[in-house]
Fold this protein.
Amino acid sequence: MDSPVKIPYESFIKIDRKSETSIYLQIANQLVNAIQRGFLPFGTKLPGTRAFSEILDVHRNTAVAVYDELSAQGWVESFPNKGTFVIGKDQEKPVRVKDFEENNLQNYPKITGFTFKTSNILDNPFEHSDCEYVFNDGVPDIRLTQIGQHSRYYSSILKRKSTQKGLGHYNHDGSEFFKEHLSRYLNLSRGLPISKNNLLITRSTEMSIYIVSEILLSAGDTVLVGDLSYFSVNMIFQKAGVNIVTLPIDEDGIIVESVREACKKQKIRMLYLTPHHHYPTTVALSAQRRFELLELANEYGFVILEDDYDYEFHYDKSPILPLASADTSGMVIYIGSFGKSLAPGFRTGFIVAPENLMVEMRKHLGIIDRQGDILMERTLGEMIEEGEINRYLKKSLKVYQERRDHFSALLRDNLGDVITFEKPSGGLAIWMEWNIPINLMQLSRKCAQDNLFIPKTLLYQNKNLTAMRLGFGDLGFDEMEKSIEILSQNILHFR
């Protein structure tokens, strides 16, 4: 059986002599690729090892190793005094030299050969820019993170023999050590009388909400959220096929009477809240309204999904305890992120709920994140145990409070005649409303031309509202001053 065409091996076999992968394996893998795609059909006779080595400019022993590898994998078969041939099924369509020229075997397919569902709901809303100055919606400053100290915790744990032994017997429900310490931490800092059995460890707040939605929400259910509300969470709810009803927010948080009226009109399955610092307006839900919402949840049977967004960042006074701390009927699910003030790789999410719901949640977590991160969880647990979390948070809070005060002063001095805002008692962002007619998208584009990027996710504009949420947490004083200078200069176009 002779080869049907003179095969240009050198055109589709590319050797990277700097690669850590041995040359013979590089060649063998590319020949297998050609066989799988039908460019070396059944019965194709491969060149002799001497000729093959000359074609590819490699040592003959390399060519021998290539053929041995192909034979071991079952792609070719060698016959004494005849040669080495490709094993497989007959191919009806002959392969032409032109086919090799038009099809580069190094390229992965650009599109699928099958159809699939697409989602506009889950389109990524985040933008990126090369501008030197950037506003965000309020994130911690990674430059404040004591990465070296955190790394020493991690490295020490990794070197322990007990840790190495435990890696082979990981409980996919999460690190028991971390859950024990996190439950105590949440008890002391948030007044949650929980045990480790009430905790589920996740990768993020978004993962927590996704798991909750998978279990508790069905298509057609009604979910109440604030107007305005956190866009990422709304995307998850929309993906679940629920009806989202927005309710008004004032200076004391969501208006309870609007919740009551919604319950009278229809069956409500869930109320989503960020009561500590409402996203995006930063207002705190009053203590009185928290009690009233708990009473409504008991009366009408809806779930309260309480997100502890920015709970750790309080400056002027102690935060009001979560609704979950006063819940005696099991109507509140408490979600949040732990270690937000740390480097991104040291953060994790969690869910607090009654034990019977935990059983079902662990089933879902076992599907989407069975392994978890035992090393990071152990690290965080020890940082809690030794008080490192509290020490670091105390230091960073002082810095963030100074930045909040400086940022507020800059806004007041430079834009005080065209905006209205309240200095927030916590969090890492300021909510400001404009008093003059202004197109925020145009403003954003003009600022970008001057090296200041304001993402569209920070802009809130409709017929009744023109507002922005500007984060200050990751900006030093010089960065704040330059950013506000650019912003105020571009406002002149709209005065």
Observations:
- The chain has a mean pLDDT of 88.
- The longest strand covers residues 243-250.
